[in-house]
Amino acid sequence: MPKTKRISKYHAIFKFKIPPKPQGEDITAAEFRIFKEAVPSRNFDHWTNVTFSVRLYQVEKPLVMLDLLERKVLFNWESGWQVFDISQALQVWTRSRRHNYGLEFIVETMNGLKKYPAQAGFVNFHGAPEKRPFIVAFFQWDGGHRSVTYRAFQTFHVSKYVYVHHTFWGK
């Protein structure tokens, strides 16, 4: 995917504390999930549908370099969990924890007007606990499969994110 320099002050950065990958396990997939609520178009000074371009980047160097992981086009009236493939980023983070600078989430209208993610209806760390962003990682080993959920939250006006818990599911 293309690399770029930080392009917007209208962004959200999500950081998750990822423990080392257990010996003998392979990451089969990883997803970043963020909830989007419907947003009335009147917030954008007109009464028509608003289309958003949403980009998720892996931060490779703090405040400098980003690597595009996925891009989506969404409408203001859409609501529900948005799922982004971050398998590439999680592979890097489990190999070297010191390279985990987080994910950068950028939203803009199709005519290039940059928006804070909350203005487009994305729920962040100040939303309902059941709608806060999280990562799901899927692992495989000789004996079966499991998934792990990583949640994070941000303390008010502090850019420090804290690992909350992870969950293991079946064999």
In a nutshell, what does this entry contain?
The protein is mainly beta and 171 residues long.
Question: Layout of helices and strands, plus pairs?
Answer:
Layout: E1 3-5, E2 11-14, E3 26-36, E4 51-61, E5 65-75, E6 80-85, H1 87-95, E7 103-109, E8 114-115, E9 134-141, E10 144-154, E11 161-163
Q: Could you characterize the architecture of this molecule?
A:
It contains 1 helix and 11 strands, in the order ββββββαβββββ. The protein has one helix spanning 87-95, and strands at residues 3-5, 11-14, 26-36, 51-61, 65-75, 80-85, 103-109, 114-115, 134-141, 144-154, 161-163. Strands 1, 2, 4, 5, 7 and 8 form a 6-stranded antiparallel β-sheet that branches. It is globular.
Roughly how much helix do the residues carry, as a percent range?
under 10%
**How far is it from the N-terminal to the C-terminal residue, by CA?**
33 Å
Which structural class matches the secondary elements?
mainly beta
Mean pLDDT: 78
Overall 3D geometry? globular
- Estimated share of beta-strand residues: over 45%
How many DSSP-defined strands? Answer: 11
The parts where pLDDT drops under 50 for at least 5 residues are 153-171
- Please report the number of helical segments: 1
- Taking Cα atoms only, what radius of gyration do you get, to the nearest Å? 17 Å
* SSE topology string: EEEEEEHEEEEE
Q: Largest beta sheet, briefly?
A: 6 strands, antiparallel
